[in-house]
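[Automated response] Your request has been received and processed.

Submitted sequence:
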Amino acid sequence: MATSQRDVRNRIGAVKNIQKITRAMEMVAAARLRRAEQRIEALRPYADAIRRMTRQAAEAAGAVPRLPILAEHDQVGSVGLLLVAGDRGLAGAFNSNIVRAGVAAGREHEGQGESPIYFASGRRPASSLTFRGLEVAQSFTGFTDRPTYADARRIAERVMAAYIDNEVDLVEIFYYRYISPLQQDIRRETLLPLQQATVLDEADDEEEDGSAEQDGHHALVEYEPDPEEILGRLVPDYVEISIYRALLESTASEHGARMTAMRNASQNAGTLIDDLVLEMNRARQAEITQEIMEVVAGAEGLTG
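Generated structure:
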């Protein structure tokens, strides 16, 4: 017989052990997801306020001050692409989709005669880019499970320095925006220069839905000191908080993707166990049938 009962029983035991592991990982991801959701809920109002203040200050300033961080380069020769993903796998296509989006954007810029320069937050995107033969200017790892503002500041300082030193002429960031454990959307945003930043293109939801906007009234804001000086102080904070928000959104999305992937793995293991049990029962039935046939054949030999 090709497969014995013992072999099938051993496979069933192995699959059950894997199922226990995937269920445990699902519960761990669910617990971490809840904490990540709480951090996002606490950060989003502050991040939205910083982005709104930056947009309003830019509108009030009119001409953007000629500061290094605010100066728009004459032409775009190189583009910094910051890919935000995770340090670990077992989360379905979570990490690979970010890498695909970043690489596709890099090819798009190459088609326009621009050179992409990759930055990676997370071991997975860094290793994937290296595997594809793409050079990573700098990678940031070891904190994707629970990122802190210091981690975001370290990344922001690197990309802002690259922009100020003319290493890159444009900075884009790719990350997952968390919606629910089953849904996460890839976002592509422009961080620098401020003149092309996504923050200037976004309409403020509160202003659109608020009664003041509906009535046609706008708040009169007086700046002290001048809006130009305030804008120069706000832009580094805007870059840092945008990256920090991306890190938190990515962390929650990763936990949600891992929870879903582990749940699917547990369900698939259950289906496989059912199939193996059926196979074992068939093997047992075949052995019993074979023994009966041998007994019958032996009895016929004795009577014959």
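Summary generated for your ticket: The chain has one domain: 26-201+222-259. The two ends are 29 Å apart (CA to CA).
If you did not submit this request, please reply to this message.
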